[in-house]
Amino acid sequence: MDAFVPDFKYGHAACGLRLSGVPDYPSVARAAISAMLAQGYPLLRESLFCQAIFDCCHLPVLDCLASIKNNDLFISVVVSIVLIG
Fold first, then answer.
1. What is the b/e burial string over 19-44, where b = at least 16 CB atoms within 10 angstroms of the residue's CB?
2. What does the domain layout of the chain look like in residue ranges?
3. What is the 3-class SS of the chain, one letter each residue?
4. pTM, to two decimals
5. pLDDT tens digits, residue range 16-73?
6. Are residues 33 and 6 in contact, defined by beta-carbon separation less than 8 angstroms?
7. Residues 81, 51: contact at Cβ < 8 Å?
8. What is d(CA 62, CA 64) in angstroms, rounded to the nearest whole number?
9. Do 84 and 50 touch, CB atoms closer than 8 A?
10. List of long-range contacts for 57-64, beta carbons under 8 Å, 24+ apart
11. pLDDT number for residue 10
């Protein structure tokens, strides 16, 4: 294995429960990411952000990842801007 590429979709527990059926999704995702990093492989987290759920889910995910102090954690951020009109 070269690296882990985890999915961390929701920074809000209610969204994780409603959309994926996982109670306390942010805590479960953080524990999984910590377990991956403990194995000594790099972790790549790609994020495609949608403006509609940025405050609810994306910003808390970024805050959570920022609190993990590990040199093997890499984050790629892509912002999607949708223009309607």
1. eeebeebbeebbeebeebbeeeebbe
2. 13-80
3. CCCECCCCCCCCHHHHHHHHCCCCHHHHHHHHHHHHHHCCCCEEEEEEEEHHHHHHHHHHHHHHHHCCCCCCEEEEEEEECCCCC
4. 0.76
5. 898 889 999 999 999 999 999 999 999 888 766 666 677 777 888 888 888 988 999 9
6. yes
7. yes
8. 5
9. no
10. 57/9, 57/10, 57/11, 57/12, 57/15, 58/11, 59/11, 60/11, 60/12, 60/26, 61/8, 61/9, 61/10, 61/11, 61/26, 62/11, 63/11, 64/8, 64/11, 64/26, 64/29, 64/30
11. 86
Length of the chain: 85
